Amino acid sequence: MFKKLLFIFALIPALTAAQELNCSVQINAEQTGQSNLQVFRTLKTAVEEFMNKTTWTNQQYKQQEKIDCNIVLIINTINSDYFTGNIQVQSSRPVYNSSYNTTLFNFNDRQFSFRYTEFQPMNYNPNSFDNNLISTLAFYAYTIIGMDAATFQEGGGTPYFEEAAQIVNTASQSGGEGWTAQSGSQSRYRLNQDLLSPNFAGFGNILYAYHRNGLDYMAENPKDAKQSVAVTLSLFNELYNNRPNNFLTRVFFDAKADEVVKIFTGGPQVNITDLVSTLTKVAPTKGSYWRQIKL
Description:
The chain has helices at 2-16, 38-53, 132-150, 158-171, 188-196, 201-214, 222-233, 236-242, 247-263, 273-282, 287-290; strands at 21-28, 67-79, 82-94, 101-115. By secondary structure, the protein is an alpha+beta fold. It has 2 domains: 19-196, no CATH class; 222-290, no CATH class. The chain has a 4-stranded mixed beta sheet with strand order 1-2-3-4. Strand 3 and strand 4 (101-115) form a beta hairpin. The chain starts with a helix and ends in a 5-residue tail after the last helix.
C-alpha cells in the first residue's frame, strides 16, 4: 500500500505540469460605480483559477515553459448577475538567450457580456455552451496557446486555432455578440476565421520567421537578426495585396509596433528604406510609430 501511495504522489507533478498558462487577471469596474463589490474579487479569483488550472492540451509544460498572459475584464455595467464590458487579452513569450519577453498578442474585445453568480462552478466542456464567460475565456486560452506555438514551429498554431474554432461554432448557437459573421470585422469569429484561412497562410509564416529567424538570434548576431526581421516584415506586402487593411495585420502590429521601432532604432545599421515604406502602407494607423524609425 505504501508503494502504491508513493507511485500516486510521484505522478502528481507530471499531471499538474500539463497546465499551460501563467495567467494574471485584473478586474476594472470603475465605470459601474460599484468597484468595491465582493463579486469582483470572487470573479478575479474564479477566472485566474479557470485559466491556470484547466488542462487545455495534451502537451507537457514545465513551470518555466508556461505561457505568460494577462486578462483585464473592464466591466461597464452590472445588472444583478449580468455584466457588460470589454476583455483585454495579452500574451508574451521569452526571447532566446535574453531576459526579454516579446508580446505576441494584444487584443481588446469590445463585444463582451456574460452572466456570473458568485461561486458558480467554471468548467470547460468543448461539446457544449455553458455560458459566455467560459466560452470566451476558453477561446482566448486556445488562441494564446496557438499564437505561442506558431512562433516555434511553422503551422504549430493550427491545432489550437481549430480548438478555438470549435468553441466559435458551439457558442454561435447562443446568438451572442462576437461569435458570428454578423459580429463585424474585428470579432472573435473574424479573428479565428482569418487565423485558419488559406488566404492568410502567410501570416503564420511571418509569426514563425519574425521570432525564430529574427528575435531569437538577436543576442547572437544582431545585424543579421535585424535584417531577417526586415525581410520578414516585407512579407506583409503580400497579405496587403491579397486583402488591404486585413485584420491579422492589425492584430500583429497592435502587439509589435513599439517593438519594431526599438529594433530599428539603435544597434547595427541595416537598410530600412523599403521597410519604412512597407510599414507605412500595410499599417497606416501606426504611422506615429513608423515616423520614429530613422533612416
